[in-house]
Amino acid sequence: MAGQLEELRKELWACRACPLHEQAYQVVRGEGPxxxxxxxVGEAPGREENRxxxxxxxxxxxxxxxxxxxxVGRKRAEVYVTNLVKHRPPGNRRPRISEIHACTVWxxxxxxxxxxxxxxxxxEKAGRAFDPGLHLGLDHGKAQPITHKGTTxxxxxxxxxxxxLHKPGLWPIIVEDWxxxxxxxxLQLEPESKYELLSSSEVLAWLN
Length: 208
Prior knowledge:
Blueprint: H1 2-13, E1 38-42, H2 47-52, H3 59-72, E2 80-83, H4 97-114, E3 118-122, H5 124-128, H6 136-139, E4 143-148, E5 151-158, H7 161-166, H8 170-184, H9 200-206
Parallel strand pairs: 1-2, 1-3, 3-5
Antiparallel strand pairs: 4-5
C-alpha cells in the first residue's frame, strides 16, 4: 500500500491535466495512513498548503484539526486528508468544474488505496463530487449512505473551515455540526484513540 501511495505521489508531480500547475508552487498531495476508515476531502489547497506541499496546514486547517481532535477525538495521524484538486487555484479562487474533472482520476485512486468507510467533505463543491444533488445549506452536518462508483460510503458534508474565517457567524454552526458528528456515526473509535474531548462552548472559546 505504501509503495502504491508513493507511486501515486510521483505521478502527481508530473500532472499537467489542467492549467493549475502553471502558477502553483508545487503539488499538494493527500496525507495520512492507508488504509484509513476516515477520509476528509476539501476543495483545493490554500496559500500555506501551496508553500508547504501539505494539506490543511493554514488557518482553516487549524480549525479543522481543532474540531477533529477536540470534538470528535481524531488526531491528524488517524485521518487521511486530501483535496479535489491538487494544485492551488490562482488568487485562492474556488476550483472550476473542468479542473475538478481533470483531477478526478487522482481522487479515485486515493479512494481505492485508502478504502475509507466515512468520507467527510468540506464545502459544497467537495460534497457534490460525491452527491451531485447536495445542498450545503440543507445537508451540512448530516451523515448519509451513498454509493460512489460502485462502493458504499457514509458521506458527511461540512462547511469548509475557511468559510468561517470570512463569515464568523458560520463558526458556531461548524462547531455544532462536528459536535453532533460522533453521535451520528455508528463507526466507533478504537479504545486507544479515545481522547479527552471538549464541549462546543469550550471549542468556541478556544480561538477567542
